[in-house]
Amino acid sequence: xxxxxxxxxxxxxxxxxxxxxxxxxxxxxxxxxxxxxxxxxxxxxxxxxxxxxxxxxxxxxxxxxxxxxxxxxxxxxxxxxxxxxxxxxxxxxxxxxxxxxxxxxxxxxxxxxxxxxxxxxxxxxxxxxxxxxxxxxxxxxxxxxxxxxxxxxxxxxxxxxxxxxxxxxxxxxxxxxxxxxxxxxxxxxxxxxxxxxxxxxxxxxxxxxxxxxxxxxxxxxxxxxxxxxxxxxxxxxxxxxxxxxxx
Length: 247
Ligand code: IPE
Ligand code: IPE
Ligand code: MG
Fold this sequence. Notes:
CATH superfamily: Decaprenyl diphosphate synthase-like
Strand content: 5-15%
Mean pLDDT: 94
Number of strands: 6
Structural class: alpha/beta
Number of helices: 7
Order of helices and strands: EHHEHEHEHHEEH
Shape: globular
Distance between the termini: 23 Å
Oligomer: single chain
Largest sheet: 6 strands, parallel
Bound molecules: 3-methylbut-3-enyl trihydrogen diphosphate, magnesium ion
Helix content: 25-40%
């Protein structure tokens, strides 16, 4: 069984989550409730990311994966979509040096084909710039959808089978996992969603098979490092059984 697969024996009761994934939701409602355009909510939301990333080492979080833009978010107005794309570029430009100096390794997951080439270039550069870091592994899901990811992985796997480089009967769960965008990451231990919605919205479908979930009412622009610490403090009490019965 590959390292990415379920690891019941490695789970220490009471230990904090090593990999936390966050669905950063509620920016639009945060702005609308203040009579401001939705993009103002996204600007405030983007500013929250720094505190959460920088809180990770003291909270024992080695992997942080954040949902920034879904494959379904293209359905929003052109103004909102292009405003978000501008914001992603601004975030990368503004934070690159600080991320480098804070020991953060940045990776992006999602389909880059639909993103503009200037943004893709900046994503590639940030990944290369921080590739030597290992204190915190920050993964940003941008144009990411769980079904899209599994579909792309399956296409590539099927092409390998057709080319005779992979045998269909050799395909198991770890083979599929190795074709996913997240092939270099452990599965998330805890998925947090802000803003009170209790749904996954196509985030890390395969990887979250045994994740714990926390749905928090706080809107993302109000989600501070203290809120983050509070959510994590409840995690240690959970009994993760992974289908087994604990002695
Ligand atoms: C999350 O906030 C950010 C993105 C999806 C890009 P929303 O924009 O979904 O905020 P609400 O859910 O409309 O309040
Ligand atoms: C999920 O939030 C996507 C991100 C946080 C990037 P959405 O706001 O897009 O999800 P739905 O539409 O409420 O399911
Ligand atoms: Mg939303």
